[in-house]
TrEMBL record:
Keywords: Signal
Pfam families referenced in this protein's UniProt entry, alphabetically: Trypsin_2
Taxonomic superkingdom: Bacteria
Protein's UniProt name: Serine protease
Organism: Peterkaempfera bronchialis
SUPFAM superfamilies named in the record: Trypsin-like serine proteases
Length: 205
């Protein structure tokens, strides 16, 4: 899990993303609205804290969003996968372990929600239950999840040793993640998100 930046780290982060397990070991997941302006000059900094990049600064080379998002900002498809360029002969998945992608998570899953409010330089974590809203959204109550936390992963089944689990959502979706800092949303990870993941994998992610 890490922060997304435009330009130098001192200019501040604007969204959150996380590595997702994939055959190419080069894929991250975030909210589609975080990458509306393409991946130009966007970097991913896993483990970012207090201005430091302990695992390096990684350049994004391509992003994948559903056409219904790019055409109409469909809040039920506010999810993006992005390919991260290798550096020093290593891929991002060689350096930072990725969460498994979880589809059709249902209702009432216990999740860990971690993200970077743009007002602070360290991640904020919350544990709570994600509830389904209709058929297309998930909802969770966690306080202080303000601007910058869009794209934060909703992770279930976290291993106590590896701290890796299954990502079943990202802050986004309804109201681009919610219009208060106490309630967050995610587009539901169903078949359309699965198809988007496979598209990214087919391009080397």
């Amino acid at each position: 899990m890490g922060a997304l930046f435009h330009g130098p780290l001192e200019d501040g982060h604007f969204c959150t993303a996380s590595v997702v397990d994939s055959p190419g070991r080069s894929l991250i997941v975030t909210a589609a609205h975080c990458l509306d302006d393409s991946t130009d000059d966007v970097t991913f900094v896993p483990g970012y804290r207090d201005g430091k990049a302990p695992y390096g600064v990684w350049r994004l080379t391509a992003s994948f969003v559903d056409k219904r998002w790019s055409d109409n900002s469909d809040e039920d498809l506010d999810v993006a996968f992005a390919i991260v360029a290798p550096q020093g002969g290593k891929r991002i998945g060689d350096v930072v372990s990725g969460n498994k992608l979880g589809l059709n998570p249902g209702n009432g899953r216990k999740v860990r929600l971690t993200g970077y409010p743009d007002s602070q330089d360290e991640p904020l974590s919350c544990f709570n239950t994600a509830t389904r809203v209709g058929t297309t959204q998930l909802r969770i109550e966690c306080t202080e999840y303000s601007r910058g936390t869009s794209g934060s992963p909703w992770v279930t089944g976290v291993d106590r040793t590896t701290h890796i689990g299954t990502v079943i959502g990202v802050i986004g979706g309804h109201q681009q993640g919610g219009d208060t800092d106490e309630v967050s949303y995610s587009s539901y990870f169903g078949k359309d998100i699965g198809a988007l993941y496979r598209q990214a994998v087919a391009h080397g992610g």
